[in-house]
Every structure is written in structure tokens, then in C-alpha cells.
Amino acid sequence: MESAITDKSEDGTTEKEVLGWLEFGEASRHLARDVLHSDFDPEVVIAIARGGLLLAGAIAYALDVKSCGALNVEFYSGVNERLPEPIMLPPMLDEPSLAGKRVLLVDDVSDSGRTLAMVVTLLRAAGADVRSVVLYTKPGTAHVPDFTWRNTSRWIAFPWSSLPPVTIEVPPATVEG
Q1: Which of 18, 54, 67, 94 would disulfide-bridge 157, Cβ 3.0–4.6 Å?
Q2: Domain locations in the chain?
Q3: What's the pLDDT tens digit per position in 110-166?
Q4: Which one of 3.30.1330.20, 1.10.1740.10, 3.40.50.2020, 3.40.190.10 gives the CATH number of domain 5-157?
Q5: DSSP character for 97?
Q6: 19-29: burial string, b at 16+ Cβ within 10 Å, e else
Q7: Per-residue pLDDT tens for 42-83?
Q8: Is residue 61 helix, strand or coil?
């Protein structure tokens, strides 16, 4: 498999990793195979929203796991801008239903690792057997995931978040003649 495209930021100073949709599909299948080969057979796949939603869905399909959920966690408030600590946002997950379950926790990247560590702790406290999986792991992360597709120190441009949010565009005025 080819490596992700390396590009420079707009100011030309920061290298970034650019992940395309096709490569994302290959990466999600690769990670699903890694989970399968580990003999961990998840009963539930849980995404850390928003970054982990698409990967969690792709892995759940690849592993034929129908029980899926999501936890809403906010940590990044902008590019390179973080809150002091990750915080849970509603709606909350039904934690008691996870007791004794094998849970695969999915996110896009383990950067500082603080979000993953917090959620793994929360799920284990609920009685779940948890493994974590991400596309990318950054050096120095506080939580090294059980499964990682790539390691990088670069900024990552994901296909789902590299464009700005859509807006209502007002069409230009037409000249009537």
C-alpha cells in the first residue's frame, strides 16, 4: 500500500499527512484484519465522535459487528487548540449495558492520547473488556492504542474534516435586461 501523501501547510512550514478516501478504505480494512488476527472478537464497536465515527462504521461492517455506539467527547476546539481536559457531551452512552462486553473503541488519532485514556477508563469502569484502534498514533501519546494503522508526528488532513463546513451560498444577482 502506498503511503499517505505528504504535503506542506499553506505557510510552507508544517508537513502534513493527507489521507484520501480510497486510502481510508484500505486502512479501515487493514485495521479490521489486525483486530481479527488478534483473536479479540468485539461484540460492540464504539466511536469517539466525531473523528472516530466513519472509521468505526467501516470497521464494524468489516468485522460484521452490528452493535455500534458513539461517545461524544470534546477536546479540540480548533486547529492546534485544546480544552484543558477532554469533556463528555450528551447524549451519554448506556454504560451499564456494556458490562461484560468486548468493546472495540475507535478514534481517528491518538494525539495526546488523553481522550482515548479517559474513555478506556470509563468503559473499563463500566465492566467492559476494551481494545482501542486508531488510524494514526502520534509520538508521546499518553495512550498507545492496541491497533494503529500508521505512526506520524505530522498534522493529519482527514478527508472528512479537511474542508470547511458548508454554508448557504447566495447566488450572484442576475442582471435583467
Answers
A1: 18
A2: 5-157
A3: 998 988 998 999 899 999 999 999 999 999 999 999 999 999 999 999 999 888 888
A4: 3.40.50.2020
A5: G
A6: beeebbeebbe
A7: 999 999 988 999 999 999 999 999 999 999 887 655 555 665
A8: helix
